[in-house]
Design brief:
- With 180 residues, the protein is mainly alpha-helical.
- The chain has a single domain, classed as Up-down Bundle (Four Helix Bundle (Hemerythrin (Met), subunit A)).
- The protein contains 8 helices and 2 strands; from the N terminus they run H-H-H-H-E-E-H-H-H-H.
- It has helices at 8-26, 31-35, 45-64, 68-72, 89-99, 105-124, 150-156, 159-174, and strands spanning 78-81, 84-87.
- The protein has a two-stranded antiparallel ribbon.
- Strand 1 (78-81) and strand 2 form a beta hairpin.
- Helix 1 (8-26) runs antiparallel to helix 6 (105-124), helix 3 (45-64) packs across helix 5 and helix 3 packs parallel to helix 6.
Length: 180
């Protein structure tokens, strides 16, 4: 992919194009395809969709200066490694998937769109120069050391995230055991 956008307008264009392409791929799937087959870790397409929505909501909360994990409906799970404490993303993602198992595939698809719209509204309120601000200017406590620019979080939990999950979703629907 090309370099990160430098303006809100460029970022929004990428966000919206990413969602449009992703949703177009989803539009070809039946309810059974969204909720039936699973991948190697036991996730349905619906689980991938609720994951995407929750992570976008987490970034919306960060921009607002709110608790990212609460917005995601997750309790951050910490594990200790040689370098110190790290987040256990698999445990966080399992919490998110479990909370949304009662949704239909159509409801999960709508959740992605609504989460995208909420995040887009927050991005629209930013000035171009704020895209380069470190995350600790938005959220306290910061994620990691707080030095990562907020645009990196926005990109990684919107258009980059859709592109990352689409091959896994396609593998589920095709009956291949691709894993995240």
């Amino acid at each position: 992919m090309s370099a990160k956008p430098t303006t809100v307008r460029e970022l929004r264009a990428r966000m919206d194009a990413g969602l449009a392409a992703f949703d177009a791929a989803l539009s070809r799937l039946s309810e059974e395809q969204l909720t039936g087959p699973v991948d190697a870790v036991g996730w349905t397409v619906r689980d991938h969709l609720t994951h995407l929505a929750a992570w976008a909501d987490g970034i919306t909360a960060m921009i607002r200066g709110e608790d990212r994990w609460a917005a995601m409906g997750a309790t951050p799970v910490i594990w200790e490694d040689e370098a110190g404490q790290e987040l256990d993303f698999d445990a966080i993602n399992a919490q998110i998937a479990e909370q949304h198992r009662a949704l239909t595939g159509a409801e999960a698809r709508a959740l992605v769109i609504v989460a995208h719209q909420r995040l887009a509204a927050e991005v629209d309120a930013l000035a171009d120069e704020q895209l380069a601000w470190p995350s600790n200017r938005f959220a306290t406590p910061a994620v990691g050391d707080g030095s990562t620019p907020i645009i990196d979080y926005i990109a990684s939990d919107t258009y980059e995230h859709y592109a990352e999950h689409l091959p896994w979703i396609e593998a589920i629907v095709a009956g291949r055991q691709a894993s995240a």
